[in-house]
Design brief:
alpha+beta; 13 helices; eight-stranded mixed β-sheet; four-stranded antiparallel β-sheet
């Protein structure tokens, strides 16, 4: 089936024009933008909407059911999300094309969501429309889930869709969500582009640290202040990071990269377990690889006095932790308390949190099929499992899915990562055609 590349790009451009920005405060969401995008999908994909059952979940998220011929076969689930992050007002002038214009220029589709992740929404729907038009009917049922609040942890969208499936007793063979990209120059010694398939993701926990003090005028401060206590607590956490550990997803990634690497990197990557003391220091030297080998702690919010000459009665800080497999929210909190070691600093978990995800296997038929599809659509590309250090909607589906994988079929150079959530987000028209081909082949091979 030949892809109408220009038409597919126009469909993505049209989706970008809807300002489906997510907000932690659900009351600030522009509901009309999301409902407009729902209507747009129905208009441009008439075949898909005639054949599939569409349900609206929590008003703004979508769940599609494409009924398969074999009711006994475990279904699969393809995921993406409708929402995008805001565009900082101060950066609007820096965009080559306005962030919600959906302009097609210079061989790219421009705008917020082009990579994160309306290319996934439109790519999946393009694939379904093409397959239905060609007379394809899946052997197993295919579910498609588009959450509306992934960028604020998905508790109203994907989490509720998962609960719907749980209530219906659905068990999935495979869930595929956004995740790793196809990256060039990912590691020294590896020449091929590498498609990174997330087989697990770290847990998520935010802790609020608070301390009380006398307050008052800044001209007569006490020796110990609430601000000083919180500052000392944050310094202790930074001076005592969690220990680095080698987990199975990271070891599997290096094993796969070792098979593709030139000498001497082949030996280093393939023998990571034996060279761990050396490699641990190397990985810890940069933030991104360091995040793959330890639970990380990031101070993100600070609050004290609202006036420069008034000492606060209450000082608060929020630290965000991404929890490595093998640890739990409880064990992480226990360690934070011990490191801070100050009874005057209260420590409380904030509402949104999740344990580290289970690790999906790479020796399964589902992973093998995914790998085959990637290699067929992107020839000359190596495929490697890896650990997602960020959170995705897929974590909500662990209770209903045997295998959860995280992969975004977009090509990203090292300098292009700044586009995601940044200025001049865009995807090339040619790459988007590959996105459509990927989802088409994935459905054809896994749901036949």
């Amino acid at each position: 089936m030949k892809i109408d590349v220009n038409r597919a790009a126009e469909h993505l451009a049209g989706a970008i024009k809807f300002k489906t920005v997510s907000h932690q405060d659900q009351g600030k969401i522009d509901r009309k933008a999301f409902i407009g995008l729902h209507a747009y999908l129905k208009k441009i994909y008439p075949k898909a909407h005639r054949v599939m059952k569409r349900e609206t979940v929590n008003g703004l998220s979508l769940l599609y059911t494409w009924k398969g011929r074999d009711s006994a076969a475990e279904p699969i689930l393809l995921m993406s999300h409708l929402d995008v992050v805001p565009v900082e007002r101060a950066t609007e002038e820096a965009w080559t094309h306005p962030p919600f214009s959906g302009n097609i220029a210079g061989g790219f589709v421009w705008g917020r969501g082009a990579l994160d992740v309306k290319d996934g929404v439109i790519g999946i729907m393009e694939a379904v429309e093409r397959l239905i038009g060609a007379g394809f009917r899946p052997g197993r049922t295919v579910y498609i889930a588009f959450g509306h609040d992934e960028e604020v942890l998905g508790n109203e969208g994907a989490a509720e869709i998962s609960r719907v499936l749980v209530r219906r007793g659905i068990k999935l063979a495979l869930t595929l969500d956004e995740g790793g990209f196809i990256r060039d120059s990912i590691m020294p010694g590896v020449v091929k582009p590498v498609a990174l398939v997330g087989v697990a993701e770290k847990g998520y926990l935010s802790l609020e640290l608070s301390a009380r003090g006398a307050g008052g005028h800044s001209s007569t401060p006490p020796r110990r202040t609430a601000a000083g206590r919180i500052a000392a607590a944050l310094c202790r956490l930074e001076r005592h990071p969690f220990a680095a550990r080698l987990t199975s997803p990271v070891e599997a990634m290096f094993t796969c990269l070792g098979a593709e690497a030139a000498f001497p990197f082949k030996i280093v990557y393939s023998g990571l377990r034996y060279l761990w003391p050396f490699m641990k220091m190397k990985l810890a030297a940069s933030p991104q690889p360091d995040a793959m080998i330890r639970t990380t702690i990031a101070p993100t919010m600070l609050e004290g006095s609202g006036k420069e000459n008034v000492m606060p009665n209450l000082v608060r800080a929020v630290v965000n932790l991404r929890i490595l497999q093998g640890e739990t929210k409880e064990s992480v909190m226990d360690r934070v308390r011990k490191v801070i070691n100050d009874p005057e600093v209260a420590i409380a978990a904030r509402e949104n949190s999740s344990e580290p995800s289970p690790v999906s296997g790479t020796d399964t038929p589902e992973y093998a099929a995914l790998k085959e599809v990637i290699m067929s659509v992107f020839p000359g590309t190596a495929v490697a499992p890896f650990l997602m250090v960020g959170a995705t909607d897929s974590r909500h589906f662990a209770p209903v899915s045997r295998q959860v994988f995280r992969f975004s079929p977009a090509r990203i150079g090292s300098e292009d990562m700044a586009w995601v959530h940044g200025v001049n987000e865009r995807i090339s028209v040619d790459n988007f055609a590959e996105v459509v081909s990927f989802y088409t082949e994935l459905v054809r091979r896994t749901a036949r």
